[in-house]
Amino acid sequence: MIKALAKSLRALEDRYFWKIVFLCSLISLLFFGAFVAAIDHLAQQYLYGFLYDWLFGWLGAALAIFIGYFLFPLTFPLISLLFLDKVASHMEAKHYLDASEVREASFWRIIYPTIKFVLVSLILNILIFPFYLFPVLGQVLYFVVNGYLYGREYFEIIALRYHNHKEMRQLRKGQRTKLLMGGLIIIGSFMVPILNLITPILATVFMVHLYHGIAKHT
What we know:
Layout: H1 2-9, H2 15-46, H3 49-58, H4 60-80, H5 84-95, H6 107-127, H7 135-159, H8 165-173, H9 176-190, H10 195-216
Helix pairs in contact: 1-10, 2-4, 3-4, 4-10, 5-10, 6-7, 7-9, 7-10, 9-10
């Protein structure tokens, strides 16, 4: 676990890592710009005169900052999903040349774990929401449940590059503690400002190293 984490942090020295971060940031900013332009267009259609000037003149900057604060951190992880397979391939080419052949990439193989993660995460968090009202118990449940879900999602993204679903589940069975610990590291990174923006990509690098460590000893 510590070895995988140390290796993943060395990716911060990799130009390719920052190239992907830049691309994700650029696409997110373009998406943000398009979103604000759409709001402005709708406002021009339905708001007139003083009301429009006041909303998008005096409050324009504040509105852009407010939307950007919430929208950018949400769009960046979603857009980074498009590049996770490329990041994994790059890291494996650098560190795991002797690894078995990767299965053919497909949109479904990449998107399936994410769709399942979102749905399962949503259902479980709704079910345990009442416990969030209790300070200590709620925090413990939040980290345990979501930590395991994050660990499992990123593990599946990497493991499905080499295994079918049945093989992946078999490999995952005896690794629940490692996946929980890995997920806790990932979810902790999401809570650190600035770091949370690159966490989806850094988490992929981390799980590449963790997966190959697990696969090597099974």
